[in-house]
C-alpha cells in the first residue's frame, strides 16, 4: 500500500523550511496521512486481489521456470547463467501476461480514494468499473512496464542461482552433521534469496513507479516511454526510486521465504536437479 501511494505522488510533497523547496513525504508521513484521512482499514485495501493472485501466480511462475529450465539446459551450457536468466525471464513473461488483470485491480483499489474520492469498492466492483470505463484493454494497463520488470526477475535468479551453487559447493566440504547442514542450508538459501532480491529490486525498481503511474485512473500517463519521460522531466530522476524502501521491506522477506520454501519442497520431492 505504501509503495503504491509513494509511487504516485506526482511531485507533491512537503515544503522544507528555510529553503522553499518541496521534498517528497517519507514513509511515516504517508502512513500518518492515510490513517488520518482514510482510517486503519485502508491499509489493507487491495488485500483481496492480492490473496487471490499470489497462489496462482507463484504456481504459474515456478511451473514455467522448472519446465523452461529443462528446455534451456538443452540449448545452453547446463545450469549456466544463461539458463537461469532465460528461464526466469520466460517464467516472468508468462506470469505477467496471465496475472496482470489481478494486479491491475489491486492497484486501482489502493488508489481509488485518490482518483475518485468515492466510497471504497470491493474487488468485483472495481473490476466491473474498469471493464465499464475502459473495456478489456483496461485490465492490461501497465503490462509493458511489467515486461520491463522482467529484468528484475532475471537479475534476481542469476544472483540467487550463483549463490546457491556456492552454498552447495561449501556444503560438501563442511564437517557438520546432516542435521546441522540441513538447517544451515535452509538459512543460507533464505539469505541468498534476500540478497538477490535486494540487489535486483534496487537495480530495476524504476519500472515499478512507471507501472503504478500507468495504472492510475484518469491520469496523463498513457505509454511506458511517455510516462518515463514525463516523470524524468517533471520530477527528476530521483522520482523513479520513490517508494523503494517499502518495496524492499515487503519483497525481501517475501522472496526469501518463497524461494527457500520452494527449494525445500523440491528437496522433499527428491528432485535434486533444481
Automatic annotation (TrEMBL):
It is a multi-pass membrane protein. PROSITE patterns: SOLCAR (PS50920). GO terms for molecular function: pyrimidine nucleotide transmembrane transporter activity. One of its GO terms (cellular component) is mitochondrial inner membrane. It is found in: Mitochondrion inner membrane. It comes from the Eukaryota. Solcar repeats lie at residues 1-71, 79-166, 184-268. Keywords: Membrane, Mitochondrion, Mitochondrion inner membrane, Repeat, Transmembrane, Transmembrane helix, Transport. One of its GO terms (biological process) is pyrimidine nucleotide import into mitochondrion. Gene3D superfamilies: Mitochondrial carrier domain. It holds the Pfam family Mito_carr. Belongs to the mitochondrial carrier (TC 2.A.29) family. This is Solute carrier family 25 member 33 isoform X2. The lineage of its organism: Eukaryota, Metazoa, Chordata, Craniata, Vertebrata.
Amino acid at each position: 500500500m505504501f509503495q503504491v501511494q509513494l509511487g504516485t505522488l506526482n511531485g507533491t510533497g512537503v515544503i522544507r523550511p528555510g529553503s522553499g523547496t518541496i521534498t517528497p513525504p517519507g514513509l511515516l508521513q504517508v502512513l500518518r496521512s492515510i490513517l488520518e484521512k482514510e482510517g486503519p482499514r485502508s491499509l489493507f485495501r487491495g488485500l483481496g486481489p492480492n490473496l487471490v493472485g499470489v497462489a496462482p501466480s507463484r504456481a504459474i511462475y515456478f511451473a514455467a521456470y522448472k519446465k523452461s529450465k529443462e528446455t534451456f539446459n538443452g540449448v545452453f551450457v547446463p545450469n549456466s547463467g544463461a539458463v537461469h536468466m532465460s528461464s526466469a525471464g520466460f517464467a516472468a513473461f508468462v506470469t505477467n501476461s496471465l496475472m496482470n488483470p489481478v494486479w491491475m485491480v489491486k492497484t486501482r483499489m489502493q488508489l481509488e480514494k485518490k482518483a475518485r474520492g468515492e466510497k471504497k469498492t470491493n474487488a468485483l466492483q472495481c473490476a466491473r468499473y474498469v471493464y465499464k470505463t475502459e473495456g478489456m484493454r483496461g485490465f492490461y494497463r501497465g503490462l509493458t512496464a511489467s515486461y520491463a520488470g522482467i529484468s528484475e526477475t532475471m537479475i534476481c535468479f542469476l544472483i540467487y542461482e550463483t549463490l546457491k551453487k556456492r552454498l552447495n559447493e561449501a556444503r560438501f566440504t563442511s564437517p557438520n552433521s546432516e542435521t546441522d547442514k540441513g538447517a544451515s542450508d535452509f538459512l543460507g538459501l533464505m539469505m541468498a534469496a534476500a540478497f538477490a532480491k535486494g540487489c535486483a529490486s534496487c537495480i530495476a525498481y524504476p519500472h515499478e513507479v512507471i507501472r503504478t503511474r500507468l495504472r492510475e485512473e484518469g491520469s496523463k500517463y498513457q505509454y511506458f516511454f511517455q510516462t518515463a519521460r514525463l516523470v524524468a522531466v517533471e520530477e527528476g530522476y530521483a522520482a523513479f526510486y520513490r517508494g523503494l524502501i517499502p518495496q524492499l521491506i515487503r519483497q525481501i522477506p517475501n522472496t526469501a521465504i518463497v524461494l527457500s520454501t520452494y527449494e525445500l519442497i523440491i528437496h522433499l520431492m527428491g528432485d535434486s536437479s533444481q
